[in-house]
Amino acid sequence: MYQWLDERLDLGRLNAKLFRKVFPVHHTFFLGEITLFSFIVLVLTGVFLTLNYEPSTQLVKVEGLTDPVQAAYASILYIDSLPFGAVIRSVHHWSAHIMIAAAFLHLLRILLSGAYKKPRELNWIIGILMLVVTIVVAFLGYALPYDNYAITATRIGHGIAESVPWVGVAVAQIMFGGDFPGSSHNIPRLYSLHVLWMPLVLMGLIGLHLLIMIKQKHTQPKYAEKVAPGKILGVPALPQQGLMSGVLFLVFVAVVFLIGGGFLAHPVEAYGPLSANTPNVKPDWYFLWIYGLLKIIPSSFEFTIPLFNGGKFGPEFWGGVVIPSILLVGAILIPFFSFTEGNVKQRYLELPSRHPRRTSLTIAGLMFLIMCTMAGYIGDPGMEWLTISRAWLLIIVVPIVTYFVSFWIMRAIWGETWQKEPEIELIVGGGQAPRA
Amino acid sequence: MADQEAKLEHEIHAHEDEDPAVHATRRAVLQAAIGVGVAGTLLSTLYVGAGLVPKKVVTPENEPLAAGDILVYAQGDNKDKPISPADLKLGGPQTIAYPMNPKTNVVKGGDPNNTVLVVKLEPSRLSPATAKDAAGGIVAYSGVCKHLGCIVSNWEASTEDFVCPCHQGHYDPANGGKVVSGPPPKPIPQLPIKVENNQIIATAFFVAEPGKEV
Ligand code: HEM
Ligand code: FES
Questions:
Q1: Ligand 2 — pocket residues by CB below 6 A?
Q2: Could you tell me how far CA A254 lies from the centroid of its own chain?
Q3: Which member of A159, A277, A281 has the closest CB to residue B75?
Q4: A141 CB less than 6 Å from ligand 1?
Q5: pLDDT at position B213, please?
Q6: Which residues of A touch B185 (CB under 8 A)?
Q7: Share of chain A above pLDDT 90, in %
Q8: How many Cβ atoms are within 10 Å of A333's Cβ, its own excluded?
Q9: B184 CA to centre of ligand 2 in angstroms
Q10: A32 touches chain B (CB under 8 A)
Q11: Does the beta carbon of A389 lie under 8 angstroms from any beta carbon of chain B?
Q12: Measured between alpha carbons, how far is residue A119 from residues A108, A217, A335, A345, A413 in Å?
């Protein structure tokens, strides 16, 4: 069998070329893999859902409910009634959370260890695009259950899309299939984007990301330079790395099913179908910071450029589009602002402690997101102390203070020596070769 | 064979050398052809792409509110039944309503922009402009938040304000739906009403365009 295939496909060469490629090992390298695993779980559970979901807002009668409800909502009730149906839905939702969280942590790892530097700028950009696309897919899927909560959340997204000057209304009409809610095209449009087109885009990006990674080789911990200068220290893709990943995948699946089964996500029955009133919604955690910004930007932040029709720059546009876009563009540009290294290619991980400016900036950026997230809780019971002006103060002051405190602490601990690479003592006798 | 090719090439070059003007024109024609092709493709793509914007279909359920419509309960046990003024509690909270066509009895709940908030306040609290479009202490407003389009369905009893659950926009029903606090850019427009036969009836369209401010 192997020989038959080998004669036709030259498996031996594939094995030697690709599967024996060496991968360095470090626990933070698994963050990217966890992102990939969540995507695989999303596709598998998503396929199950598509086979039972009905993308329509036609009113249908459901046994046990007096008023007719939309077919999409009814089909979710049906899915929930299937054996493990509710669990599959819950796992789909939880994997979305995990995918976004893992992608974000993966990005932080790359940032803090300097792995985005030349020659890996392209993969840094692709990585950020993937994070954005993933969040967009999650948003587009959110309305599909068509319960009152999901509809309200999506309606806010529709409003933000419409707030873009000049083009916003057209963009929103195309993305949401008309006014949301209220158009019979809403759910079919969102459905097709969510289950087909955006996942395809994501798959393309993932493929590109991995190809580039294999071509450029992985960065590796610094000790590898001492042990085997100029070489990559790690384990072969197959069988060792594959086995590790396989085991990790199984553990991952076990854990998401445990979480998904134990804590059912998005109980549509509790929210009920579309109704005239608005429930008290909060978006999922990864949107909370934008939601916080929307709450604190006052209505006076508005001006109109009376050119053509609709040049309005309103508060929703600033909070929902401009600030996130600035952060996004800033993140994309990071690799082009690293002056520290010369023209050398980055092959080894950098220690966060050796780059106090970058590390402190990263922590300050996180603080900014956390403070904005906190602003999302303005007006909640128990949060009366948080006024809009205090939220502004925190958002501006805390990141700045954080930067200086973090910088100062790192300097106090590592002194002026941070530019020097740490001395690594070799214990074994193997790696005495002179430095390349 | 190779000789021939070389000769051919030589001839082509010789030809070009002979008359550079011909060469330049040929290049211009080619470039123009490519340009026209690309532009045509883009234009036709846009034309096809315009089909991605759905057509608005007007049905009896999503026709805009009109003068003479009767306000009915949008939800609850009395859904689709006319709101009787006596059932409104003084000092709120608001009741969410849809307009009903008095001739066909079709409830126009298909368009969220038809959502109406009805609330009964102390008549002396109403500003003169608001009182003009009110029926006694009963006032009606568009229910769609001017900020991002949520239905303004919460009520702050201490200040007698409408509150939008989405980003805590506060509107004052005694003062033309003025924004008291929060992000909404404009007041929610008032709906002129009268009370007749124990029903609440719209006497005109909203005083301004309802719906999220675009
Ligand atoms: C790529 C990343 C994906 C993310 C982040 C994601 C996220 C989500 C989210 C947040 C929901 C709402 C679930 C709920 O509230 O119950 C949802 C629903 C849904 N998704 Fe996905 N999804 C992804 C991929 C897919 C794929 C590839 C498919 C199909 C092949 C799919 C099919 C569905 C279906 C049918 C629903 C509606 C059923 C339901 O809401 O339970 N999804 N998705
Ligand atoms: S949608 Fe009403 S305050 Fe934002």
A1: B 145, 147-148, 150, 164, 166-167, 169, 182-184
A2: 21
A3: A277
A4: yes
A5: 77
A6: 299, 302, 314-315
A7: 47
A8: 12
A9: 6
A10: no
A11: no
A12: 18, 10, 10, 6, 31
Q: Select from B54, B149, B184 the Cβ nearest to the Cβ of A173.
A: B54
CATH 1.20.810.10 domain locations along chain A: 16-272+307-343
Whole-number pLDDT of residue B4: 62
Proportion of chain B above pLDDT 90, given as a percent: 46
For the cut 60, the answer to whether the pLDDT of residue A310 exceeds it is yes
**Chain B within 8 Å of A261 (Cβ-Cβ)?**
no
| Chain A residues inside the 8 Å CB shell of B75 | 275-277
Query: Are residues B171 and B188 in contact, defined by beta-carbon separation less than 8 angstroms?
Result: yes
B-chain residues near A183 (CB < 8 A): 54, 56
State whether residue A275 sits within 8 Å of chain B by CB. Answer: yes
In this prediction, residue A425 carries a pLDDT of: 56
Is the bond into B128 cis (omega within 30 degrees of 0)? no
Q: Is the pLDDT of residue A216 over 70?
A: yes
Kindly indicate whether the domain formed by B70-202 is annotated with CATH number 2.115.10.20: no
Q: What is the average pLDDT across B17-41? A: 87
Of A158, A185, A302, the CB nearest to B149: A158
Strand-pair category, B70-73 with A312-313: unpaired
Q: Measured in angstroms, how far is the CA atom of residue A393 from the centroid of ligand 2?
A: 23
Name the interface residues of B facing A (CB cutoff 8 Å).
Answer: 52-54, 56-57, 62, 74-75, 79, 96, 98, 109-112, 115, 143, 147-154, 164-168, 179, 182-186, 212-214
Cα–Cα distance between A384 and B81 in angstroms, integer?
39
Residue nearest to atom 4 of ligand 2 (CA): B167
Domain A16-272+307-343 in CATH 1.20.810.10? The answer is: yes
Please say if the pLDDT value at position B9 is more than 60: no
Q: What is the interface pTM, i.e. ipTM, of the complex?
A: 0.75
Helices (H), A263-382: 268-271, 288-296, 315-317, 323-333, 356-375
**Residue in A156, A163, A185 nearest the CB of B166:** A156
Ranked by mean pLDDT, the top range of A173-177, A419-423, B13-17 is A173-177
**Ligand number with the minimum distance to the CA of B145:** 2
Longest dimension (CA), chain B: 106
Instruction: Chain A: give the shortest CA distance to residue B205, in Å.
Output: 20
- pLDDT given for residue A166 in this prediction: 87
Residue B15: pLDDT over 60: no
Given a contact cutoff of 8 angstroms between Cβ atoms, the answer to whether B123 and B172 are in contact is no
The rounded mean pLDDT for chain B is: 87
Q: In the structure, what pLDDT confidence band is assigned to residue A65 with cuts at 50, 70 and 90?
A: confident
B136 pLDDT more than 90: no
Model pTM score? 0.85
Contacts of A170 (CB under 8 A, 6+ apart): B53
> For the residues B5-27, what does the mean pLDDT come to?
66
What b-and-e string marks burial along A76-105, b requiring 16 or more CB atoms within 10 Å of the CB?
A: bbebbeeeebbbbbbbbbbbbbbbbbbbbe
pLDDT at position B35 over 90: yes
Question: What's the token pair of residue B190?
Answer: 């008032």
User: Averaged over A206-232, what is the pLDDT?
Assistant: 78
Report which of A320, A267, A263 is spatially closest to residue A294, judged by C-alpha positions.
A320
Give the single-character DSSP code of A331.
Answer: H
Give residue B135's pLDDT. Answer: 87
